[in-house]
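Progress note, sequence design subtask.
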């Protein structure tokens, strides 16, 4: 014991001597030199008491007792202060002082027997035992000199000694009958407890020594700009302390009571800012601007430069112990250059729905989730002299048909949804098992199909065969008919487009729900402003031969405008109505539109003007959900398909318009737009399209309505297929209702 004390005192003397020497000789450190750190720490201790003794010195459990106390573990806390002194770049001396508790409860079990006042006994074979316990209150103040090695990064490896003085070492010892023994059994004193002793733990060591080893990881947190306020370090750490002397000495028969500890905790350390040597920095620059002035110059006259008058400035600032002297020379030179033979520029403004121009800082594209009502064209079209269902119609296996639902058509455009017509009919026939359908096969009654009734019948048979095989429908629910021209054919019957439209199978049903419209949720997009207007200015000495304006996004061409001669005053771009895939993708991103003009004069010289840009801002449904915002409801209808060259409403059309009317609120904004297919002149089609829109508006007659016709100038769908032309003979209705 004395040897351990002398070794600890020697280590303590060396530490203190080293500390005083280092503080006395501490030079003005370099920026990267280690610095002294101060801090506090707290820890959670797992105390491992290694115990094997019969009784405390002078405290007998029972005479000739042979049941020893055994090992036990307990938890406690420790807290203290620390200082770390640098010895070398990666080596430090760490000095710690802390208070820690080491409380523990020791137990020993003895088999015995008990009696009761009624004369009964409880023997050890029945489970009779008595329980000895020593409940301690141990606390020590300790000092730990440690060597700390930093191999790399923030990792720290520490080793050293701990010397502690036991401030608290009280105990209570007792023998008790456990609760598992019936209450009527007692000791001979009539109580269930005896041999109670308390006081200061006898022959407890006043000093406790332990070997200490541990690891930690230091995380620096700078305080202030450039760590001007010093550095705070957060260090998670773990230590193991191996006891070097017993807790209690003088235990009989070689008994032992040693204490080891496992400690886990966090240390907070602070390092003062390092001194910085004052220094001076000069910042000298010449700032020269050149103004280009274009003037008509003779061919043989060179460009010239006029040197401006220099202006000098000088100022001094002091920051972070550094004096900065800024010296500047400013000069503006003028460069006279030859005016190019071709010039051009372009600006962009926005145009509102009412045609008013407005400055445009950005194009705002906003998404709304609304309802879309799509008409179901109840025709299946065939190739010339063929009864095979074309590949563009979706055809499923029976297994795939079982999984098909109409809700899968979410966000399908009307043509894509229409091409699922056979599966829509199949699913609705499954939903309404008592409904029947009639398939009327038709031919064009023209050319090779003249009076080809067998061909008409085969076309109807092909549709029935698919519905029976894929959808497992009862053939008796499907009626087959054949005729030459349809009862309501497209005319003139000799025109190429109308011949295609008359090669079809018409699907009708005794139940309207089988062929009624499709209702799906839809993502609608609206732009503000809806139109970008470009104003292109072109000048050429020899005259403008042609011009181009290219709109790009992310280095991809989105839209191009071009023409011969001088450009028009205004070039309007309704980007939300573009049919190209590039334009549809463009309105879904936030990359800006870059527009660049190109001017070519009559001498073949081309000038590329300075590009401009239109920023794009997307307000998606996801953004609105995050903001918990919903300000409008939208519904989009294209329920009415008109016959070729017709604008009047049939009874079915009127019922459909009345249905739409019920959806319009007094504060709704209603836009009704009429369309036509590609057949006929542009002027005639615009008038026909507007007549169709006006017919619907007359029935609805609610809300704030905007009615117009666009004709073939803005085709809704690809007219190369019959269904595309049919779906263009329509009126679209958009209802926008503010949420109050």
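Output:
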């Amino acid at each position: 014991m004395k040897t351990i004390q002398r070794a600890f005192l020697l280590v303590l003397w060396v530490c203190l001597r080293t500390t005083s020497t280092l503080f006395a000789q501490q030079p003005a450190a370099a920026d990267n030199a280690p610095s002294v750190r101060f801090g506090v720490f707290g820890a959670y201790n797992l105390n491992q008491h290694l115990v094997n003794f019969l009784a405390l010195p002078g405290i007998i459990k029972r005479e000739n007792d042979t049941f020893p106390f055994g090992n036990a573990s307990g938890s406690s806390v420790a807290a203290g202060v620390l200082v770390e002194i640098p010895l070398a770049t990666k080596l430090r001396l760490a000095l710690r002082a802390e208070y820690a508790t080491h409380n523990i409860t020791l137990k020993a079990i003895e088999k015995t027997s008990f009696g009761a006042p009624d004369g009964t006994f409880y023997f050890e074979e029945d489970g009779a035992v008595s329980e000895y316990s020593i409940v301690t209150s141990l606390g020590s103040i300790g000092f730990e000199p440690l060597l700390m090695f930093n191999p790399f990064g923030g990792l720290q490896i520490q080793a050293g000694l701990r010397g502690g003085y036991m401030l608290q070492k009280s105990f209570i010892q007792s023998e008790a009958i456990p609760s598992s023994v019936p209450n009527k059994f007692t000791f001979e004193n009539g109580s269930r407890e005896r041999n109670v002793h308390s006081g200061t733990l006898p022959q407890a060591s006043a000093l406790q020594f332990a070997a200490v080893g541990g690891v930690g990881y230091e995380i620096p947190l700078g305080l202030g700009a450039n760590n001007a306020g010093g550095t705070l370090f957060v260090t998670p750490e773990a230590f193991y302390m191996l006891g070097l002397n017993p807790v209690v000495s003088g235990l009989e028969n070689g008994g032992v009571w040693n204490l080891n500890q496992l400690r886990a905790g966090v240390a907070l350390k602070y390092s003062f800012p390092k001194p910085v040597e004052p220094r001076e920095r000069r910042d000298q620059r010449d700032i020269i601007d050149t103004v280009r002035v274009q003037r008509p110059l003779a061919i043989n006259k060179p460009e010239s430069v006029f040197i401006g008058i220099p202006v000098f400035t000088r100022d001094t600032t002091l920051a972070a112990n550094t004096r900065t002297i800024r010296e500047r020379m400013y000069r503006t030179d003028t460069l006279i250059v030859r005016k190019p033979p071709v010039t051009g520029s372009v600006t962009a403004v926005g145009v509102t729905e009412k045609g008013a121009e407005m400055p445009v800082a950005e194009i705002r594209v906003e998404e709304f989730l609304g309802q879309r009502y799509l008409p179901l064209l109840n025709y299946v079209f065939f190739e010339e002299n063929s009864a095979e269902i074309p590949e563009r119609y979706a055809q499923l296996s029976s297994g795939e048909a079982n999984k098909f639902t109409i809700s899968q058509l979410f966000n399908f455009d009307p043509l894509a949804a229409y091409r699922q017509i056979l599966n829509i009919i199949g699913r609705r026939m499954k939903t309404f098992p008592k409904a029947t359908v009639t398939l009327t096969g038709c031919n064009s009654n023209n050319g090779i199909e003249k009076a080809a009734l067998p061909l008409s019948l085969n076309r109807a048979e092909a549709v029935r065969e698919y519905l029976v095989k894929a959808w497992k429908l009862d053939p008796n629910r499907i009626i087959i008919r054949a005729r030459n021209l349809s009862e309501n054919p497209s005319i003139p019957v000799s025109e190429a487009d109308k011949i295609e439209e008359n090669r079809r199978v018409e699907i009708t049903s005794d139940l309207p729900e089988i062929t009624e419209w499709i209702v799906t949720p839809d993502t609608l997009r609206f732009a503000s402003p809806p139109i970008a207007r470009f104003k292109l200015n072109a000048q050429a000495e020899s005259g403008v031969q042609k011009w181009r304006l290219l709109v790009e996004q992310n280095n991809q061409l989105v839209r191009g405008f071009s023409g011969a001669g001088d450009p028009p005053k205004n070039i309007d771009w309704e980007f939300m109505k573009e049919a190209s895939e590039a334009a549809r993708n463009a309105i879904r991103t936030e990359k800006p539109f870059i527009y660049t003009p190109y001017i070519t004069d009559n001498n073949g010289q081309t000038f590329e003007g300075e590009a401009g840009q239109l920023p794009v801002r997307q307000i998606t449904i996801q953004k609105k959900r995050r903001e918990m915002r919903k300000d409008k409801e939208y519904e989009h209808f294209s329920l009415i398909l008109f016959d070729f060259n017709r604008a009047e409403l049939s009874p079915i059309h009127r019922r459909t318009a009345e249905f739409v009317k019920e959806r319009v609120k007094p504060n709704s904004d209603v836009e009704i737009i009429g369309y036509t297919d590609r057949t006929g002149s542009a002027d005639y089609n615009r008038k026909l399209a507007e007549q169709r829109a006006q017919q619907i508006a007359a029935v609805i007659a609610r809300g704030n309505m905007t009615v117009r016709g666009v004709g073939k100038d803005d085709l809704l769908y690809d007219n190369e297929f019959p269904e595309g032309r049919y779906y263009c003979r329509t009126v679209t209705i958009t209802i926008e209702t503010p949420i109050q």
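The domain at 631-738 is CATH 3.30.1330.60 (60s Ribosomal Protein L30; Chain: A;). Work on this subtask will continue into the next period as scheduled.
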